[in-house]
Write a structure and sequence with these properties.
Chain A is 41% helix and 22% strand. The longest helix of chain A has 19 residues. The termini of chain B are far apart. In chain B, a hairpin with a 5-residue loop joins strand 2 and strand 3. The chains are: A alpha+beta (90), B mainly alpha (138).
């Protein structure tokens, strides 16, 4: 699973809880990939995902959070996706 | 001091637009004359110029209000404005993407309509648009 945090350089709010969220994601899914994307460097990709405001988080190339979630919200979103993937796999 | 007509002419906008900006809280007269006329100072002209420039960059009036508030906020910094500009760019790029898709749809329809002399009842463009409408029906 790939988790992508879109931010703008100089945006304090964008990276405020970055370490906490990253640690939460690693704890929930140890094999996940965490990417931090400066939106100006990948603006076409951000537009493709439908990102209009910052910060934003996409999971597996799907926009999931349009503002930074709490650690609990991120955990819940990850668990829901894993459960959904498993149910599709069966 | 400038009357509403003069300030509007200087800023190249209508007096109706100026009154609208006033109702939206973007600008206000610096004083009212004894006769009850609104009077504006040079700051108002600069503010109107700012509003017009911001509109040209795609900012809505409520976003311009936010920019004006930020410009007066001593604790705000350039990064706050930069973030608004980046978010506006994202919105514009998203609109451009949609417009490009619309343009491509029209390209396909124009190409398919090669027989110019067909009666309008058999027009492939109208048929294609009708088909799009069919798809969208629940």
């Amino acid at each position: 699973m790939i988790i992508e945090l879109f931010y703008a350089e100089g945006c304090q709010q964008c990276l405020r809880n970055r370490e906490t969220l990253k640690a939460t994601a690693q704890q929930t899914l140890p094999d996940m990939v965490w990417r931090e994307i400066n939106v100006l460097e990948e603006i076409d990709y951000a537009v493709e995902l439908g990102i209009l405001t910052l910060p934003a988080i996409a999971i597996d190339q799907e926009l999931v959070f349009t503002k930074l979630p709490s650690a609990a919200q991120l955990t819940q979103a990850l668990i829901e996706r894993v459960t959904k993937e498993k149910s599709y796999g069966n | 001091m400038l009357t509403i007509g003069k300030v509007a002419a200087t800023a190249q906008i209508s007096t109706d637009a100026l009154r609208y900006y006033e109702r939206e809280g973007l600008i206000k007269p610096s004083s009212i004359s004894e006769g009850g006329y609104r009077l504006y100072n040079q700051d108002a002209v600069m503010r109107l110029h700012f509003i017009k420039q911001a509109q040209a960059c795609g900012f809505t009036l409520s976003e311009i209000r936010e920019l004006l508030l930020l410009s007066q906020h001593t604790s705000a910094c350039c990064n706050d404005v930069r973030q608004l500009a980046i978010e506006k760019k994202l919105q514009l790029e998203a609109k451009i993407k949609v417009l490009k898709m619309m343009s491509s749809s029209l390209d396909a329809m124009i190409t398919n309509c090669s027989n110019h002399s067909l009666p309008v009842t058999d027009c492939p463009i109208l048929e294609a648009i009708a088909d799009i409408h069919e798809v969208k029906k629940p």
